[in-house]
Amino acid sequence: MKWIGLIAVIFTGGLLLSAMDDFPNWGDAHSPANSSPVSQYYIEQTMTDSGVPNMVTAVLADYRGYDTMFETVVVLIAGIAIMAILRVAKQVPGGAKPTPAHEVGDQHDIIIGTTCRLLIPVLQLFALYVIAHGHHSPGGGFQGGVILGASFILAAIAKGLDPALQRLPEKRYVKLAFVGVVIYVSFGVACLILGENFLDYGVLHELLPTMSAEEARSHSMLGVEIGVAFTVSMIMFAIYANLASKGELEGGL
Amino acid sequence: MSVMGSFIISQYVLDHFNFWVAVILMMIGLYAMITKNNLIKKLIGMSIFQTAIILFYVSAGVKEGATIPILEHHAAETEQVAAGDAGAEHGSVVGADHDVSKSSEKAPAHEVHEINPDDYSNPLPHVLMLTAIVVGVATLGVALAVAQVIYKNYGTLEEDEILAKIKAAENDG
Amino acid sequence: MAEQYPILVLLVLLFGALLVGLSGMADRRVCFPLTVTALGLAVAVSIGILQRVMDGGVIRYFVGGWSRPVGIGIELRIDTINALVLLTVTTVGLLTAIFSFRRVRDDKTEKTPLFYVLYLLLIMGLSGMVITGDAFNLYVLLEVSSLTSYALIAMGKSKRAATAAFSYIIMGTIGASFYLLGVGYLYLRTGTLNMMEIHQAILALDGPSSTIVVAFVLIIVGLMIKMAFFPLFGWLPNAYSYCPSSTSCVVAPLMTKVGVYVMVRMMLTVFGTEWVFSNLQYTQWLVGMAVVAILAGSVMALAQVELKKMFCYLIVAEVGYMVGGAWMANHWGMVGTIYHIMGDAFMTLCMFLAAGIFLKQAGVVRIDQLDGMFRKMPWTMAGFVVGALAMIGIPPTCGFFSKLYLIRGGMESGHWFYVGALLISSLVNAVLFFRIFEIAYFGKNPAEGHAAHHEEPSVQPVIKEAHPSSLIPLYLTAAIILLLGLFNGQIVELIEHSLNGVQVIGTEILVEKGGQG
Description:
Chain A is built from ten helices and no strands. With 253 residues, chain A is mainly alpha-helical.
């Protein structure tokens, strides 16, 4: 098996490297990919089209927003899949407490508890900043959503899963994860209803008379990113909660 | 001979060192995925493989001397220059966020000539890889969940032991 | 509204999934009607799309309205081939959803909403893969459909479902990553992700480009892992036979077929048949591998004692048919392949529906347990027989006509080994299915008597005919198999319409090339 694997890998590597002389050099600004009309268009026209200086955000949420919608769906699927695979019903409450060991372990260190209590609000604020500031700096819904999710996970690690799940019960995080995708899709559907193609945010300016089409694009991108952040943060927590408790959502690590 | 050799090295390796690194990493990951006995090690290999692909894409979008694909700082600078020329009063608010929407309204008129695509790295690979990262995370999460179920069923994550147990169970039933 | 059809197919399914997820948690009973409604609407819209393509030619839909330089946004592009495959995907989805009515209620009450969310998203992913005109978007949707199918397979109650799902994840990820790498190579050389634009860029290249060749190899190998082409099929039999019936009924017919479709799309639209068949000398090898795949799949199917496993190896053989047909560089081979994508989807669906009913009603896992089924479950067997005849290739069914086209293609292009393998495989299918008929009609083989001995007292009395919710999809599938066969002329006309009108190659070029090879 090892030898077959090695041969397969060497063969694949050789195949991948065999095209190397045809490749653009490192940092070549005039390679076909870097000088293609598509890439040029993004760099030159993003400002005109939507006034968003971060091209990555603009491409992600506007030009290729259709991809990003499915990306959000992929995240949702991951969460749903993990629940579908791992989730087991809770033990009958009448029976003996299944995890007494965790009760002892739950008396957590005061230093850790205090640090986390101080850190979590800051983390969450920073997450909101990253989400909202995605237009102007690296950031956006996915990044901010992960940070937000990490803050919940930190709470779960520091205080145990049960207190964290009291704050954010299963029903709620699943619902919020779905709501995130709903937000994203409803932006697209609103465009559809107003008579344009799916996700053509430009027409949304008809909803608010004071908005120009460019502003409508920019604001819709923010709205879409917020939807993404909902889904991502909730699913991150869902993945942790299920993996850490073997699907029982009790006790935790 | 050595001139020839160094020429080949520079043409095949140095000019494309990013692709070499990416391909080597990919093959490490692929090797782990195919041959490792432990399921978690297989998943580690999977992560290495996917990360190497991300490296491959992103390094393809690099332009020598170019900056990240965010217009603001440069736009503001050019704005400043333009403001100096045109006598507009936007120049004083460099970097102030609340003013960006205002300046962006103005920006296009100036920027059509100001933006040089060679100054910004290619944004498209970044976007694509954001997607690939998310997909990778999702796959890894699902795979870990499945591995956990396997551990619950068989009490081990070593592939040969699992296969032995499956065989034993088949012979019994 | 009509011009929004392409996106509506996906939106209907996506909204269905979201609604099931949000309301299903409160009340599980809404899951099933919502799912069937969403899929019914999707089928209706797919029919609308087919109608529009037939009337007005290729549909190009630019998501977000980004059409000015083509390629900055994402394009959905539908010709008659897509439209037919899309209709196949949604119809199989609908039929299996109806079939899942009792199964899921009995199996997994707790996880019913989760199952239906994943199910709808799987159909959405597959539909999206079929209609997209963007190479990277295809990757995203490929992962949507893969992730959902991993989860659906891992949900199986069998202990081995998880191990099967794990090896599927590993192989599936390698396949998808190869595809992604291939797209990356293409992007490096062409600078665009839109399929038509890539094609134009490849045509405009001066001289051969090794990058494009490697990209092509990567994409095809990646897709071959996904469609379980011969040496790379190891994950398939376990994954498809240890999952719940309602999952195998949708995964088995669709995943491999959509993989084949994507390969055909890559050959026709992205690389272009001229490039594929002239710049590469290896097409002969691929037909040869297809021959091996057909023979190996058939032989391994003969060796199986479990019903579902046998069907799984038949899938491997069927994939061989289609890959061989597509690579013959011949008009009729290509037509036969595309026709077979549709026909085989329904034939496989019929097989797995019947296997699901047998498993549910009579606990049948092995073939020898089927004894006396014609007496015990005559209605189910009637539907099963139609599917089996189609698998063998008996005239009024679609299986006969797809084999006819494939054989015609093989004869015109001189691939006699392929023709021979196809005939041998049909013979093997005949042996397999008539063995089943014999067992089911005349009772069990005396030699295997003691194997079924233990089950007999407990199983015998409880066997009763299947529920209508299981029989209706089975009969609809059987009817579609017959209809596809009866209307094969019209369908082939539709397929040819796209092959001639849209692609750079015409019939005659393909035939010529085939004649030389």
